[in-house]
Write a structure and sequence with these properties.
Elements lengths: L19 E4 L3 H13 L6 E4 L20 H9 L3 H4 L8
Parallel strand pairs: 1-2
């Protein structure tokens, strides 16, 4: 699943079947999709439905910062993605 996405025409009927469908691919939806993939060892098929393709023009893919709680950092560590985020993290002073 990670990085394996396909663009689908919203006006055409879908014949695809998924175990889980997540509405919204921003931080919460993307994290949920990664958690499902990691915690089920990719045994469930997951669709993330997003109105825009992640091409750096969607407002959710800009350079804004985000504050993460300690619990959120622990969750990201548990699903195996904190190591990719940690080099960019700094403490809030």
């Amino acid at each position: 699943m990670a990085g394996d996405w396909q663009r689908m025409d919203a006006t055409a009927p879908s014949t695809h079947s998924y175990d889980v469908v997540i509405a919204g691919g921003a931080m919460a939806g993307a994290t949920l999709a990664l958690a499902i993939e990691r915690l089920t060892q990719a045994k469930l098929s997951v669709a993330v439905v997003e109105a825009a393709i992640p091409d750096n023009t969607h407002p959710g893919y800009d350079a804004r910062s985000i504050a993460l709680s300690y619990g959120s950092c622990q969750l990201l560590d548990q699903i195996g993605v904190w190591h990719g985020v940690a080099p960019f993290a700094t403490a809030i002073n």
